[in-house]
UniProtKB/TrEMBL annotation:
Organism: Prunus dulcis
SUPFAM superfamilies the record matches: Tetrahydrobiopterin biosynthesis enzymes-like (SSF55620)
Subunit structure: Homooctamer. Forms a hollow cylinder assembled from two ring-shaped tetramers.
Any one Gene Ontology cellular component term annotated for this protein: cytoplasm
Protein name stated in the entry: 7,8-dihydroneopterin aldolase
Source taxonomy: Eukaryota, Viridiplantae, Streptophyta, Embryophyta, Tracheophyta
């Protein structure tokens, strides 16, 4: 969904696509064919297909359960050694839901136990192998939304700290964000 556009006819050299401005806004810069000098098209686009930026802000600014740095051994990946030897995966999950009643009552029955989300992550990561981290993250997100109707949105980050890359790094991975209104399984 395009929410704005700015056109500038100035730069003397070709311009290429750039990355994210923020988590929810994407910046696209491209050369136009119809101008002697390149046009720079800057389009602000909603990062999610679920609805409005206000909906995104309301969910992300709301209450959430937070699970950080969950570590499991799994056999995900496309390389043979990833499937036979396995490797460590590091997972972060944010589950957005209204926590007011639990805050007032101090009863576990008015919320979701962290251990339930932990169990989902453990079962997925230690379960049957997937080729892609995107698939691992998607299964964690969709299972969380399916099992717990209180969750309005979920963010899942899956990292691989031990990858065949020459250079220092903490991990490589993916992060997905799913809304109940769009992404919950039926």
């Amino acid at each position: 969904m395009s929410i704005g556009q700015l056109r500038i006819c100035a730069a003397p050299e070709p311009i290429s696509r750039h990355g994210f401005i923020t988590k929810s806004i994407d910046l696209i810069v491209a050369r136009s064919r119809g101008c002697s000098a390149p046009n720079i098209h800057i389009e602000l686009m909603a990062a999610h297909t679920s609805g409005t930026i206000q909906e995104d802000a309301a969910i992300r600014g709301g209450d959430k359960l937070i699970l950080r740095g969950l570590k499991f051994h799994g056999f995900h990946g496309v390389k043979p050694e990833e499937r036979t030897l396995g490797q460590k995966f590091v997972i972060d999950v944010d589950a957005w839901m209204d926590l007011r009643e639990a805050g007032k009552s101090d009863r576990l029955s008015d919320t979701i136990s962290y251990t339930e989300i932990y169990r989902i992550v453990k079962e997925v990561v230690e379960g049957p192998p997937h080729n892609l981290l995107e698939s691992v993250a998607q299964l964690i997100a969709s299972t969380s939304l399916k099992n717990y109707p209180q969750i309005s949105a979920v963010s899942v980050k899956v990292g691989k700290p031990h990858v065949a890359v020459h250079g220092p790094l903490d991990y490589l991975g993916v992060e997905i964000f799913r809304y109940r209104s769009v992404d919950a399984p039926n």
